[in-house]
Structure formats: structure tokens, C-alpha cells
């Protein structure tokens, strides 16, 4: 499984309250999904549930990486403001991460891999 998000923001982003708040939210959600995946993995017949949780975890990590590795502080703050507008609603944050996945990351995939995410 991919590595979790770093727990500490890069130094150049530490001064932004909106980034700190959004990233803290992202880290809390990431920890929650990771814990649920660990819990469900010990139970029988939970493969589809785990797959759904792993997808949500991927969406949250995309947001975290967009915040920490954005091309500028303004770009990181833009994503952080999007996260903050979700008001800690995990479903809305998941949809936001899915939006960024579809619009940006899936475009970089090979056509055969991209087709897997259409269904």
C-alpha cells in the first residue's frame, strides 16, 4: 500500500492558516480511512468494502499531495480553500479528491489504465 502523507507541512507552507487547517483535516480523514481498512482486513468477505475505502483514501491523499506539492503557495491555498469549503464533510472531500483525480491525474495515465476508472 502507498505510504501515508507526511505529518509535517513543508516549511514554506507553515505560515498559511487555511493550508494548516485543511491539511490537518486531510490527515485526520486519512488516519480514519487507514484504521477502517486495517479493521476490515481482518474480517471475511470485505474485499469490496476495502476497495471502496482504498479509493477514498487515494482521493484524500491526492488532496494532501496537491496541497503540499503545489506549484505555488497560491495553488496550495486554492486546494486548501476547496477542502475547507467542504466543512469537514468526508463525502464532499472524497468527491473533491475524485474530481482532481479525474481532471488531472487520470489524464496522465495510459489509455488502457484510464479506461479502468470509467466504470
Described by the principal axes of the CA atoms, the overall outline is globular
Report the average pLDDT across residues: 90
Number of domains: 1
Q: Secondary-structure element sequence?
A: HHHHH
Kindly provide the radius of gyration, computed on alpha-carbon positions and rounded to a whole number of angstroms: 15 Å
How helical, in percent, are the residues? 55-70%
In whole angstroms, the N-to-C terminal distance is 22 Å
What does the main sheet amount to? none
Structural class: mainly alpha
Query: How many H/I helices?
Result: 5
The number of E-state strands comes to 0
List segments where confidence is low: pLDDT < 50 over at least 5 consecutive residues: none
Strand content: under 5%
Q: Your description of this structure?
A:
The chain is mainly alpha-helical. It has one domain (17-116). It is built from five helices and no strands. The chain has helices at residues 17-40, 47-68, 73-85, 90-105, 111-116. Helix 1 (17-40) crosses helix 3. The model has no long low-confidence stretch (mean pLDDT 90).
In short:
This protein is mostly helical and 119 residues long.
Which short descriptors sum up this protein?
single chain; 119 residues; mainly alpha; 0% strand
Amino acid at each position: 500500500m502507498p505510504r501515508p502523507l507526511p505529518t509535517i507541512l513543508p516549511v514554506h507552507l507553515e505560515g498559511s492558516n487555511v493550508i494548516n487547517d485543511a491539511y490537518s483535516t486531510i490527515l485526520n480523514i486519512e488516519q480514519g480511512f487507514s484504521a477502517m481498512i486495517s479493521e476490515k482486513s481482518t474480517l471475511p468477505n470485505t474485499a469490496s468494502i476495502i476497495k471502496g475505502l482504498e479509493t477514498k483514501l487515494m482521493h484524500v491523499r491526492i488532496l494532501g499531495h496537491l496541497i503540499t506539492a503545489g506549484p505555488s503557495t497560491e495553488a496550495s491555498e486554492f486546494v486548501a480553500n476547496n477542502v475547507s469549503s467542504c466543512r469537514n464533510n468526508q463525502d464532499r472531500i472524497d468527491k473533491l479528491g475524485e474530481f482532481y483525480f479525474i481532471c488531472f491525474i487520470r489524464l496522465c495515465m495510459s489509455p488502457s489504465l484510464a479506461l479502468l476508472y470509467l466504470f
